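User: ok so my PI wants both of these folded by tonight, can you help

Assistant: No problem, let's get them done. Here's the first:
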Amino acid sequence: MFLILYLIFFDCCITIQYHILFCPEKSFSEKGGFSDVAAGNKKNKKVRNVILITITTILTVIIVVAGSLFAVANYYVSMIPKSDGSGGNGNDPSYEDYGTGDQPGQLPDYDDYDEEDDYPDDPDLPPMETMDPADVQWETPDSLPDVDDDGLLNIMIVGQDTRSNKRERSDTMLLISINPKSNNVSLISFLRDMWVQIPGGADNRLNVPYARGGFELLRKTLKTNFGVTIDGFFECNFSSFKDVINTLGGVKITLTEKEVTYMKNSMKVSGIKVGENLLDGDQALSYARIRKIDSDWGRTNRQRKIILSLFDEFKDANIMELKATAEKLLPKMKTDMSNGDIMSLMLTMLPKLSSMKLSSYSVPSSGTYQNKKIGGRAVLVPNLSKIRTQLANEYLPK
């Protein structure tokens, strides 16, 4: 559609210039058409013609430049593989790969997946208790607070820390919520170990819906439990961020003594110190994977720190760095958004990048969940009412 309108307008500009230059007996009338010119003031006629030529030339240049920019942007956007939402691309696992969960509390098999139990940071929480899945009491949809996210752009980043090409459980779920009017942006991590209602199936951890039903089932799960509407998904493997970080010249991260000790001793990372570091891609990926020194709260917080630092680097990047970043990252992502939707998102965000204000949160937070064992696994049973209220009043950008 854009191309058709572009060609029509371009043709009109050329036609006007042709009539002015090669039909001296004609002039553009005040009513918008061409009419015979009676003998009159030739000087005024020439001035009008010069003005018309100038205007149409400027418009032609603008259209040509805009069309070229559109073509370049569309070229890069087209690098991102598209998904229909269900993730059916021939490489996706069947339900049997992960267990169907048909029986209450039935969990998928966790073969070849580092699925250690995470424990919360809060020492004031009571000891973990075993809970039967049938005893989880969900509030009815009508009784839950509404989450008003109209006017916001909600983009969910689904991260997989895997080296295979198969769709697996979502290792990271990061909501990027954008308020185009205020330029406020919230980064909200949804912890994978939350016990949630999965539409059309049994309750399970939040990292299961993506493996079972792709973007669409994850979208429905997030809406059912937390009330947020996801406008688009991007799936990426966090290993691909290594190239991006190296392209931008590294990422600035302040490391604690615990983080440095663990990275050096357990992850065999060298060249780091306590305090501010300029991490390369491999070092940053190791940092983002740390979990054993604290919990999944700490891990997701480290991931958001990397993204915040990358955002600062990205704002100051030159055109060649941006080009190299796009060529390395985009082909390794997957989205359910159309090229037109992505272009619209870019037009909304890019002009405002330098003035955007970013905030960072995680769901659930202290006091909005219970730490339980269901089916032999440590899970976080969320208080959906409290979490929805927190999202609506604190987390989503105003």
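One down. Here's the second:
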Amino acid sequence: MHVKLVAKQLPHFKIRLNELSLALFYENGLEPPPGLVDKKKRDPNNYGWRIWLQAKRLKEDPRDLKEIIRTSLENSYSRGDLEKKLKDHGLYLAQGDKRNFLIVHHSGEPMAMTRYSGMKSKDIAGKIGEAKNLPTLAQVQTQIKDQQSQVVKKRLADLKERQSVEARPLLAEKKAMTQNHRDERSSLKDFQKERWQREALNRANRLRKGIMGLWDIVSGRRGKVSRRNKDEILANRQRDRMERQEVITRQLAERQELQQRIKTLYSSHDNERKKLVKELGHSVRIVDKALTNEFNDAVHGKELDKQQGKLQDNFSDSSRQEEKEKLSDSFNEKAEPDRKDKKEDKKNNDLGRTRKRDR
């Protein structure tokens, strides 16, 4: 059997559906909401999808916004009284393009007062006067920009100063440690150089001259002394290298411990900056170019202070190796045998080869 379906206009369908919903509550023995029974008992802070979307963009609770605007308007008896109460919550009065009443959020976004307050424009005008007497939306947005720019700059400057003060002890400790390590390496270098010269003189004195030296060559004693000197030179070089390596290892460990504290402090400062940027970014639209640059620096983790920039010499594997090579080079510059010692080694080797040929 073929059934033909016909669509018919249902007048006042929302009212009919409300009546049907109320009947279903009673039919199932449930207590209906007071607002469904009597329109006057509806929650004044209920909101529609337009208010919900706008509150979501503003990172605000739509119920809180409606409560603030509605109670402020109900309890105000003049325009000045209403403006003062709204300003305490970061809201401002303005007129729209059609001379309607607007509430301007501290981010600069306009909101319809009739939608948030639940009152008609005529009733609002009876309390605070005509909308044409209010500043325009552009004027209010400019005012908010000027006020908020000063607030943002001050909070960024305060954070910069506080973080700079917190970093000063670590900067001073780093500077003192660098100087102490440099002095220690210099002292060890001078000590090793003096000791090497003293030991080279002792080795040279073992090689007798004149007739006794000639006899040493003939008897083979000169070759033994030369080999002994050569062995001592190799052992002393190894000893000096180990002493330098011990100092390098210890200084790197001390520097890395300090660097870890520096990185912890910088990470804390970085989180503070990002938190502040997030907070301020939700409360004000940045249109000032200089202020935008400061925000971008904070977002990308750049320091707000030149001194703090000195804290970022992170000790990665490559930088540790570079530091280690730098320390080694500073030792090796003057701690290696000088030209006189090299001539002595060559002379000992030549004498050893001469003794072998004589045999």
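Confidence is low (pLDDT under 50) at residues 303-308, 310-318, 333-338, 354-359. The first helix runs from residue 13 to 27. Good luck tonight!
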